[in-house]
Amino acid sequence: MLRRAEEKGFSSADPAAATIAERLDAAPFCRLRLAILCVVTLALFADIAEVALGNALGAVFQAPPQSMTRTELSVFLAAIFAGGAAGAPFFGLLGDRTGRRLALQLALLVIAGGSLGAAASDSPVVLIAFRFLSGLGIGACPPLIAAYLADVMPPRWRGAIICVCAGLAFLGAPGIIFLMRATSPSFLGLEGWRWALGSGSVLAVIAAGLLQLLPESPRWLAAAGRIAEAEAALLRFRGARSGAAMASAASPLQAARPDDSDPTSVRRRFLLLCTLYALSPWATIGFLLMSGAVMLKKHFSVGDSVVAAGLIMFGPVIGNLLMAFVIDRIDRKASLVATALAMTVLGLSFAAATDFLPLVTIGVAFAFCSAIYASVLGIYAAEIIPTALRSSRTALAWGIGRFVSIFVPLVFFPLLHLFGPWAMFGLIAAAVGLSALLVITVGPQGRSRRPVA
Predict the structure, then answer these.
(1) Which of 89, 190, 212, 428 has the fewest CB atoms found within 10 Å of its own CB?
(2) Can you tell me the distance from the alpha carbon of 54 to that of 59, in angstroms, rounded to the nearest whole number?
(3) If DSSP codes are grouped into helix, strand and coil, which group holds residue 423?
(4) Consecutive 10-residue runs of the chain (453 residues): their mean pLDDT?
(5) CB neighbours (10 Å) of residue 212?
(6) What domains can you pick out in the chain, each with its CATH number?
(7) Residue 288 CA: distances (Å) to CA of 314, 346, 369
(8) The pTM is what?
(9) Dihedral of the CA atoms 138, 270, 25, 156 (nearest 10)?
């Protein structure tokens, strides 16, 4: 089935579709592109806020009056990742079949429904079920957003724009937690955690509604053979109106390579992405999830551990926003390898450190690098998979990462308590080290500052 889909996606090269893609790439960064960036950033903000809220609720439900059993709490924490593992491939396939915008809208509405249901839930079983429902959409949003931005943004700024989107969206994590704190223990008769879930639902609905005002990706429409619709969507991008003149603006050096549309090559790239996404959560999810627990293991107070975990959460915001200035000047493979090696060194340093200030500093630096790694991996994935399959393949690889994320706390908690921080960070170092080796040895070149296939 995978082979048939790939062969169908590459059965012909439509000159009209290629011209539309070239004209889109040659168009300047206009108000429409700024609007797209703002709307998808809001969508990703809602997505990240929901994930961060799950971690905060894990602490809330350990104490009365919302106490969960240890089993219920474990299932609750895993539900959102399980939903993401199932939802990402489904919505990713939808993104290749019906368009990026519609698939993203539906994913956001699923998040809104799940969050609203969770906010109104009155039992752990119902809450867990609605968190799984939210997870279906939450798992799909990041790869769909990356695919949409890769489709419509100018090649020379693609990486910077995606990093800005991720950096601003990561503010959703502290934002939703501060909201829950401000409305706790109750506000207008409702507990703070219900207000936070309800607010997440409202943000998702607003983002879905605003997406309706934006065009579908002209690149995807052209690849799907819907040339007239692609032309109409293209007219909304200022400066993309002229045909031959704009098409000639693309340099021959920027043309797609012959293997970009070869089914065998694309299958190898897809398998590489699946492996990289399976390895990624051990560092990018594991560290943020476990940093507070590691601080407790090092005999810091609960208060100090919470403060440290909160400060570390600003690492992704800082990392993505600073990386936006240089990401398109550095080869994607070099960025992935450099950040993977930096995480290895910083992780082992965190295991060795014993004082509060060095631990927080190293923790922020690790989160800084892990966020850059995750963003560059998302950009790299969108660039090395061609338009016809970009949404479904990148979302499926992302979904594998969500599935692996279910097991990260199940492995790390006993590993930390039985063998200490060195064992946990040794596993993190092994995962990111293997990732770097794979990128170096078998990873194709990214498309930094060049059009995507």
Answers:
(1) 212
(2) 9
(3) helix
(4) 46 66 88 95 91 71 66 80 91 94 96 92 88 92 94 91 91 78 70 84 95 94 91 82 45 48 85 96 84 77 67 81 88 93 92 87 88 91 91 93 87 85 91 95 85 80
(5) 10
(6) 15-442 (1.20.1250.20)
(7) 11, 13, 12
(8) 0.83
(9) 90
